[in-house]
Known about the structure:
Blueprint: E1 2-3, E2 9-11, E3 16-22, E4 30-36, E5 43-45, H1 52-64, E6 74-76, H2 82-85, H3 88-95, E7 98-101, H4 103-114, H5 117-130, H6 135-146, E8 163-164, E9 178-182, E10 191-195, E11 208-212, H7 237-251, E12 255-258, E13 264-265, H8 267-288, H9 295-301, H10 313-332, E14 336-338, E15 347-349
Parallel strand pairs: 5-6, 6-7, 7-8, 11-12
Antiparallel strand pairs: 1-2, 2-3, 3-4, 4-5, 9-10, 10-11, 12-13, 14-15
Helix pairs in contact: 5-6, 7-8, 9-10
The protein binds zinc ion (2 copies).
Amino acid sequence: xxxxxxxxVTDHGGGVWSIAVPIPDNPLGHTLVHxxxxxxxxxxxxxxxDDPDSWDVLVAGLAACGADVADMYGVLLTHxxxxxxxxxxxxxxxxxxWLAMHExxxxxxxxxxxxxxxxxxxxxxxxxTAAGAPAAHVAPLLAARDAGRTPRLAAHLPALPDxxxxxxxxxxxxxxxxxxxxxxxxxxxxxxxHLEEAHPARLPGRGRLFxxxxxxxxxxxxxxxxxxxxxxxxxxxxxxxxxxxxRVGRLGAAEVLPAHQHAFAHAPDRVRELLAHHEARLxxxxxxxxxxxxxxxxxxxxxxNRPWADIPAGSRTIAVSEAEAHLRRLVKLGxxxxxxxxxxxxxxxx
Length: 350
Ligand SMILES: [Zn+2]
Ligand SMILES: [Zn+2]
């Protein structure tokens, strides 16, 4: 692993580089966009946040790796979030590269592009009310809903992918052995990409893993509900995430190349750590349910990176979604249940 002259570019060896593309005004700092050489031309894993400065850093980073953005052959997207998929349209326009994404996340992109904003506000207002959110929290959503049609700017819509990213299969990348591994949880269609080639520095283990947001060295990804107004399936994203962690741990990758923070070895150790973390967190939440609480009341009492009083409204909505994902899991495990007749529905430990 060597630092390439030029800020934020690392040569990971064996035709793999990372470029730290900044995310403006975000404590995460940057997305690690990876560049992978193939016999058909360079391929990107994720693209970074859609911002002019981020674009300049990506283009300069590619140049430092000896690549030109105009030569990109394809883009593999770990998931649809804007810090990963944001610059995809621009890369495609500059190069003609295809964009590949798992079908479940492509579905989210299509819905984001097509679903009228006012209906989305209405859906969120109903969900938050059902989760026990106070009227003051829901009011701005209702106002936005009632304001009527909010046009979306075409430039701000996420790019439609061109092809699926079929899980379990070796991808058609001449000269490379790269396999998509479906790892739902953080999003319904999140994938990790397993580079099934000997590690260039001969680290023990099986190849390298582009892990997106699924497996990160120092933080845990947000796990909320998969919001879909057209689908009433009761999903279990936290259960999906924990299953996906085990799946990734079993790959035994020699090194993990995540989309944030830094590369690290010993993937199975990190997986064990995260499984233990979530087990402890679930136990802690169950203890909070000694008396009945709505998802909102649970979120208020959960541990966040700052006191609840300092969390802005948008982030509170995300926090409640995370509380609900944990409640789903506890209910599924038979460790909590809904209080019959409660409105909004409250949950209690069993
Ligand atoms: Zn993400
Ligand atoms: Zn991310």
